[in-house]
Amino acid sequence: MDIKSLEDRFNEKIDKDIRIEPKDWMPENYRKTLIRQISQHAHSEIVGMLPEANWISRAPSLRRKAAALAKVQDEAGHGLYLYSACETLGVERDDLLKDLHSGKAKYSSIFNYPTLTWADMGAIGWLVDGAAIMNQVPLCRASYGPYARAMVRVCKEESFHQRQGFEIMLTLCKGSEEQKKMAQDALNRWWWPSLMMFGPTDEASTHTEQSMRWGIKRFTNDELRQKFVDATKPQADLLGISIPDEDLKWNEERGHYDFGEINWEEFFNVIKGNGPCNKQRIDARKNAYDNGAWVRDAAAAYAEKKSKVKQEAA
Amino acid sequence: MKNQNLFHYTLQHADNCLILGQRLGEWCGHGPILEQDIAMTNISLDLIGQARMWYQYAAEIQGEGKTEDDLAYLRDAWDYRNVLLVEQPNGDFAKTIFRQFLFDSYSCYFYEALMNSSDEHLAAIAAKSHKEALYHIKWSADWVVRLGDGTEESHERMTAAVAELWPYSGELTKANKTEAEASKDGIGIDLQALKERRDAKIREVLTEAALTIPESTYAHEGGKDGRHTEHLGYILADLQFLQRAYPGLEW
Q1: Count of CB atoms within 10 A of residue B87's CB?
Q2: How many CA atoms lie within 13 A of A201 on its CB side?
Q3: pLDDT, tens only, A133-155
Q4: Which of A102, A133, A142, A205 is the most buried (most CB within 10 A)?
Q5: How far is CA B227 from each of CA A122, A158, B83, B100, rounded to the nearest angstrom?
């Protein structure tokens, strides 16, 4: 079959919402874009473990400690499914990790902000996981099968994390003056970076059009951002804390909240590596990888010895 | 308190689980392989779960209306009754693995025997925890073998871990007054019988791992009676920070 007919068949599947599977023919750019998008998501999961793991040892009750451990472990699990989904496209996890460590591959910039108080564990669950869900739920219908299936599992757990984060915030907001102050401070620091999680404006977004055509993106950045603001404002009211945006108000005509201008200079700076924790996060990942090299070597050497013994016995 | 000895006995085990769970949790996000990062967090989670069952029962025995968190977050080091082994720092992966193996090779037989406790509550905690302990020992023993018999470097690192932690192995199986009394009452277990099974397990696994069993039988001890190493104070400073800085609040 020539390229033209392969392409036609691929496009027909996309149009009919039939999933593309690993062994199906796909355009090289579709494959590359998927690898970039899925690995970026996988990296976000494992880098995202770090700011929250930071509070496991200091969780304020045994129940919270267990929940924090379980949550961060879920993130690791998401990383694992997503790396596996990526491997179905013909790349190795090790190579993906090398790209993360060299700075070639990106991860969600939100994890370059520090977790300074316990309330950050609430704010991350509520806002960051909340924003992630907005981004990810539509991807359960992504055109690439292994990705869509991984996202179904990821989204189930993320919505549990989001409720858990909100519940931490609620407990703080019903607590002492200091606890309420902690909650407000966390909202102040996490609000704008959470809005940035949806990426640049539609005008400035370079990949959106093609990705929507391919069914690996279902809504634009600005649509998702609006959805997030609309869903989150009433939740902040319920908590009794204020979103740090003077321009945030209901627009009757649009049926949406209007909100202020995002500081795009900060956004691009953090992407370029100038966020408060970029270096710390990548160093932590690199150290884990480098210090683990002898462990991986030992496991490989042992497995090889065992398989040799087996062969000789056979 | 009606049953001081049972209270202390229960706390000893609660503290072991909590402190080892806390130590393992430090690995979260920093493991050598993603799958092993998940495994360590999982074991940490099991241990925190076990600690909660023990503390809840201890609070009930104490009968002062305290909670699991009061016991975990508001006692100072001298009231902690964990063995010295579990408060030892993580070190490299070899040291963490060997610390875990020394603990698991005790706890799987401990829980097995405790299922026959005359105290129904202890027997129930044991039944639930034993299943987890069997999974833990499988994981840590497999890694002792893999690292001991892996590469030259991993063998050297395991040898160093064995040498460093060996003096902390004996405390687990040497009964203090609390344990001797609990065993006599039929509440606790016979540590001498456990020691024989555990020593055999350690011999079996270390032999398979091509590691030498140290000759010294010297054992550091005191943790079970509240005399700790310098490490525990730092662990508690982290663990208890919020409860100490903002006393009496709901979190």
Answers
A1: 27
A2: 7
A3: 999 999 999 999 999 999 999 99
A4: A142
A5: 37, 43, 9, 21
Burial B158-174 (b: 16+ CB within 10 A, else e): bbebbeebbbbbbbbbe
d(CA B42, CA B28): 10
State the CB neighbour count (10 A cutoff) for residue B196: 11
Q: Is B34 in CB contact (< 8 Å) with chain A?
A: yes
Chain A, window 278-307: residues with a beta carbon less than 8 angstroms from a chain B beta carbon = 284, 287-289, 291-299, 301-302, 305
Q: Which tens digit of pLDDT belongs to each residue from B107-117?
A: 999 999 999 99
| Dihedral over Cα of A221, A223, A225, A228: its sign | negative
Flag if A302 and B238 touch (Cβ within 8 Å): no
Residue A62 is nearest to which of B32, B48, B147, comparing CB atoms?
Answer: B48
Q: Does domain B4-245 have CATH number 1.20.1260.10?
A: yes
Taking Cα atoms as reference points, which of B161, B110, B158 lies closest to residue B134? Answer: B110
pTM over 0.90: yes
The ipTM assigned to this model is 0.97
Which of A94-133 are b and which e, b meaning 16 or more Cβ less than 10 Å from the residue's Cβ? eebbebbbeeebebbbbbbbebebbbbbbbbbbbbbbbbb
Interface of B with A in 116-155 (CB under 8 A): 145-147, 149-151, 153-154
